[in-house]
Amino acid sequence: MERQYRYYHRIIAYMEGNYMKDLSLEQLCEEVSLSTTYVNHILKSCTDRTFIHVLNEMRVKKACEYLEEDRLKVREIAEKTGFRSSKYFIKIFKDMQGVTPGQYKR
After folding, report:
1. Where are the domains of the chain?
2. Among 6, 25, 84, 92, which lies 20 to 30 A Cα-Cα from 74?
3. What does the DSSP assignment read for 77-105?
């Protein structure tokens, strides 16, 4: 279990440093030298979430910080936080926060 937590911290550290990129599970696994199955197992057992859910949570958390600064457009925030499209960003943001980024900003 202790080894699993060490791996978990390596996984999260890598994700936190790269969430703004077009990050895939395969890239992450290559970086931490673990299989996709094992990384998914670690994330599921430590967070009860999948890779993409953990990644989107990181991105939305950072997006909230950008929205509170109130300088950037939603499209710019989507790009800076690693979302490929504004439409997908808005959908994920609303699913996680209960409001759209525009509503959150107000």
Report:
1. 2-50, 55-105
2. 25
3. HHHHTT-S-HHHHHHHHHHHHSS-HHHHH
